[in-house]
């Protein structure tokens, strides 16, 4: 269990009828109230994190600098967080910091260089 998965005591109030219903379900399933609550919270977070409306809210708050990237990574899946980061860099006009693939030769060994001067000369000849 990682440090972030260590149990943390949380106290909250709930209508008595919900607690009674939760306890009855826990008894029926042979588990306890805490396990049911933790599972319900996990399911809610999973469902919420994948909803378009929630992702749009996270993106808007991130683009408006109301959320930092570390918070975004905790709210949405890593691929979505990375996409938001790249789009924000685009919106901010920042250059992308993308490393070239190390294991793939996209040129199949046929690399050519173009100098700016050569490009200018060919444009003049047109």
From TrEMBL:
* InterPro entries, alphabetized: Arc_rbn_hlx_hlx (IPR013321)
Superkingdom field: Archaea
What taxonomic classification does the UniProt entry list for its organism? Archaea, Methanobacteriati, Methanobacteriota, Stenosarchaea group, Halobacteria
A single GO BP? regulation of DNA-templated transcription
* Protein name stated in the entry: Uncharacterized protein
Q: Where is the composition biased (Basic and acidic residues)?
A: 90-99
Q: Where is this region: Disordered?
A: 90-126
């Amino acid at each position: 269990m990682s440090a972030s998965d260590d149990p943390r005591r949380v106290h909250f109030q709930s209508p008595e009828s919900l607690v009674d219903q939760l306890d009855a379900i826990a008894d029926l399933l042979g588990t306890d109230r805490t396990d049911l609550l933790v599972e319900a919270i996990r399911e809610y977070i999973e469902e919420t994190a994948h909803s378009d409306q929630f992702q749009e809210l996270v993106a808007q708050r991130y683009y408006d600098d109301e959320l930092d990237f570390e918070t975004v990574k905790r709210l949405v899946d890593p691929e979505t967080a990375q996409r938001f980061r790249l789009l924000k860099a685009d919106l901010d006009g920042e250059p992308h910091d993308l490393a070239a693939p190390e294991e793939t030769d996209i040129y199949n060994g046929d690399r050519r260089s173009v100098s700016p001067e050569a490009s200018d000369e060919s444009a003049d000849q047109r």
